[in-house]
Specification:
Structural class: alpha+beta
GO molecular function, one term: receptor ligand activity
Subunit structure: Homotrimer.
Helix content: 10-25%
Protein name: CD70 antigen
CATH topology: Jelly Rolls
CATH architecture: Sandwich
Radius of gyration: 31 Å
Distance between the termini: 85 Å
Membrane topology: Single-pass type II membrane protein
Number of strands: 12
Number of helices: 2
Pfam families: TNF
Number of domains: 1
CATH class: Mainly Beta
Shape: elongated
Strand content: 35-45%
């Protein structure tokens, strides 16, 4: 019997199918472990708020007070915060601001009174060092005003909405609402 030249050790070769099968098994197990871990819900990369009027009883103050949250239906806040019914911005940027206010119990008699003196204003009321009026809307001979605009806002700016006294806004969320949406930094 003749000996072959080379090593006296023989190596066992694994079939490639078994190697591939083991690699796929390791990959699937890793994926299952990764997907099974609980995730932290991240806040959206944009700030947005859609608010409803928070009003009860006669108005002693020209400011309109707002409320927001899922319990109110279509109202929500992601980023901005409410500070005593006023909207406070948490991030610098350019925002799309929108508002609609409908007067409550607006009749033909009310329209003649309204057209002469009813005004809705939206402005930055805090910090007071740079108080700015953003929108000034007259009702003219109607019972509803609505507007939107792009405006730069800074962290800490608080938006105030004022309605001429003693007029009462409608509390219907389809008629009176206010909101902002972050557009760009």
């Amino acid at each position: 019997m003749a000996m072959e030249e080379g090593s006296a050790c023989s190596l066992r070769r694994l079939p490639w199918g078994a190697v591939l099968r083991n690699a796929v098994l390791i990959l699937v197990c890793s994926l299952i472990l990764y997907l099974g871990q609980p995730r932290r819900l991240e806040s959206p990369s944009w700030d947005i708020a859609e608010l409803q009027l928070n009003h009860t009883g006669p108005r002693q103050d020209p400011r309109l007070y707002w409320q927001g949250g899922p319990a109110l239906g279509r109202s929500f806040l992601y980023g901005p915060q409410l500070d005593n019914g006023q909207l406070r911005v948490q991030r610098d940027g350019i925002y799309k601001l929108h508002i609609q206010v409908t007067l409550s119990n607006c009749s033909s008699f009310m329209k003649s009174i309204v057209s002469h003196r009813a005004t809705l204003t939206v402005g930055i009321c805090s910090p007071s060092s740079h108080s700015i009026s953003l929108l000034r809307l007259n009702f003219h001979s109607g019972c509803t005003v609505a507007s939107q605009r792009l405006t730069p806002l800074a962290h800490g700016d608080t938006l105030c909405t004022n309605l001429t006294l003693p007029l009462l806004p409608s509390q219907n969320a389809d008629e009176t609402f206010f909101g902002i949406q972050w557009v760009h930094s």
